[in-house]
Fold WAT1-related protein.
Amino acid sequence: MAEGRMCNRDGFILTAMVLTEFSNVGVNTLVKSVTSKGLSPFVVLVYSYAFGSLLLLPLAFFSFRSRSLPPLTSSVLYKMGLLGLIVSAAQIAGYNGIKYSSPTLSSAMSNVNPAFTFILAIIFRMEKISIRKESSVAKVMGTLLSIVGALVVTLYHGPVLMSSHSDWVIGGGLLALQYILLSFSYLVMAHTMSRYPSTVVVTLVHNVCILIVCAFVSLLVEKDDPKAWIIRFDVTLISLVATGALNSAYYIIHAWAVSHKGPVYLSMFKPLSILIAAASTTIFLGETIYLGILIGGILIALGFYMVLWGKAKEDKVDILGSIESSPSQKLLS
């Protein structure tokens, strides 16, 4: 029974995480669309997170009403604020990186995320590695294989991605910084969720923190251009609302997934966005699919399933161990 519930939960988490990568590519495309029309990336951040926070307010209210939650102590608020600060820096770097480059490059640069998250998780002892365990070997090999696959996709799709154009290089550097910061944010998110297990509340506070930081930065950057804050009531407004909604849903799912699976599992889905971006640009923009995308996609898929297998094996061992220990605990009591 417990094993069946675990499989159902894992299936939901897997599906949700794949959907978030689709939404992430969609957000990147929307950001590129509005920034290419002259809207500042800083202003995009402020408006999108403002809309996202407004959408989350009623959900947070019902969350407080429907369940018993621990008090919002100063320690918990500090962790949420730290999470918001890290993600603010990541989003500022990422949105500006997309402005200088493209959503495809953003997806390609995400391959640095699993490696840094995995390394940081080991350093901070949030992941246990033992070369004698098949599950640990599978996670290590799967992570490396996914990164190699992501690099293959990047290099073979490279005539554009490896351009020496200065803006493209700046964009790539900013996007790399974004995903390194996101690796740190996953660890902070995991720690925060262990202290305050409400995905909606954590996401709302995190959104508000990002809104405050980005508003402050935007006021400094755009202080000489008041017109930068003017939004046309057309596709720009729709894009900003959609970006805010998708970002909020994205972080809620991430908080939920990281509380059950940990930060490394979360980061493993990042390389999938390369394939999603490549497919979407092919369908909507008519770009060519290169052989490298196919080869890299196979490697990413193999690595992806190796990590899933390793995590599932560890979860199964933990559940069986708890079931076996419960009768003895009852006898002792």
